[in-house]
Specification:
- It is built from 12 helices and 10 strands.
- The chain is of the alpha/beta class.
- The strands form 2 sheets. A 6-stranded mixed β-sheet has the order 1-2-3-5-7-10, with helices on both faces.
- β2, α1 and β3 form a beta-alpha-beta unit.
- α6 packs antiparallel against α7 and α10 runs antiparallel to α11.
- The relative contact order is 0.12.
- Bound molecules: hexanoyl-coenzyme A.
- The site of hexanoyl-coenzyme A has 20 residues, from α2 and β6.
- It catalyses: a 4-saturated-(3S)-3-hydroxyacyl-CoA = a (3E)-enoyl-CoA + H2O; a (3S)-3-hydroxyacyl-CoA = a (2E)-enoyl-CoA + H2O.
- Its EC number is 4.2.1.17.
Length: 257
């Protein structure tokens, strides 16, 4: 593997990407950013990959952007290098992604989890945007995605005080889809990913694109967008297979195109 800070494994049509900087609790330095983004874009180009699971360690999904790396930077360093801009490319990946979060998901770690499509948490997960305690603010979309996920009340409190949320609060607030016991997290995430990867890949991509559109546009435009994609799926063999399998009372075998 060309990567030093992440581990990559393939399990059938599912790819597992594990953050692997244990000594720094998976702090997201520029190398981690570049490797996660490059690896995910690679997987995105591979039609044999139907879903990507992103995870960390039991103790930390990621304890944030790398504070030691950022500490000496000045405004022009940050501006001219467009610090963190590569993370935006993760949000443009078309293959569905699942974040499996155990332990700390703070600052950039919480933002990275929110860049994924499905967010599963272990009962040990801790979420927060504590940047304010370091004299900075979120920089990978946290103030925007957390607010859209949990609403202004909680997002504002978390961003202004640095308070963290446990898994139960995160689920109640709508940040994560489900909480599972720590020992079952990875298995459950892989099972969810395997389910997604068994669907038609282009149709799953369109479903993802359609849900994501809800964050970008008005209801009328969003429904129009959905309707166009809904019509478009009738151009796939997988639509015929899925509906035929139902009428024949059997499981569909999608060809993913
Ligand atoms: C760099 C980090 C780090 C980080 C942990 N480490 N988080 N290094 N950047 N974000 C390092 C520690 O320095 C330490 O290295 C090692 O990982 C283990 O961490 P400890 O603190 O010893 O572990 P523990 O006592 O268990 O505490 C865990 C923790 C704490 C509560 C998660 O590490 C912590 O508060 N981390 C920072 C969390 C945070 O503020 N995240 C937001 C970052 S800002 P050594 O070498 O000392 O053993 C951010 C901003 C995004 O994400 C955009 C803003 C511009």
């Amino acid at each position: 593997s060309p990567y030093e800070t992440i581990l990559l494994e393939r399990k059938g049509r599912v790819a597992l990407l594990t953050l692997n900087r244990p000594k720094a609790l998976n702090a997201l330095n520029l190398q981690v950013m570049n490797e996660v983004v490059a690896a995910t874009e690679d997987l995105d180009r591979d039609p044999e990959v139907g879903c990507v699971v992103l995870t960390g360690s039991a103790k930390a999904f990621a304890a944030g952007a790398d504070i030691k790396e950022m500490c000496p930077q000045g405004y022009l360093d940050m501006y001219l290098s467009d610090w963190f801009a590569a993370w935006d490319r993760l949000g443009r990946v078309r293959t569905p992604t699942v974040a499996a979060v155990s332990g700390y998901a703070l600052g950039g770690g919480c933002e990275l989890a929110m860049l994924c499509d499905i967010l599963l948490a272990s009962d040990t997960a801790v979420f927060g945007q504590p940047e304010i305690k370091l004299g900075v603010i979120p920089g990978i979309g946290g103030s925007q995605r957390l607010t859209r996920a949990v609403g202004k009340a909680k997002a504002m409190e978390l961003c202004l005080t640095g308070r963290t949320m446990d898994a139960v609060e995160a689920e109640r607030a709508g940040l994560v889809s489900r909480v599972v016991p720590a020992g079952e997290l990875l298995g459950e995430a892989l099972a969810v990913a395997d389910t997604v990867a068994g669907m038609s890949l282009p149709v799953a991509m369109m479903a993802k694109e359609s849900v994501d559109r809800a964050f970008e546009t008005t209801l009328t435009e969003g429904v129009r967008f959905e309707r166009r994609l809904f019509h478009a799926v009738f151009a796939t063999e997988d639509q015929k297979e899925g509906m035929t399998a139902f009428t024949e009372k059997r499981e569909p075998r999608f060809r993913h195109r």
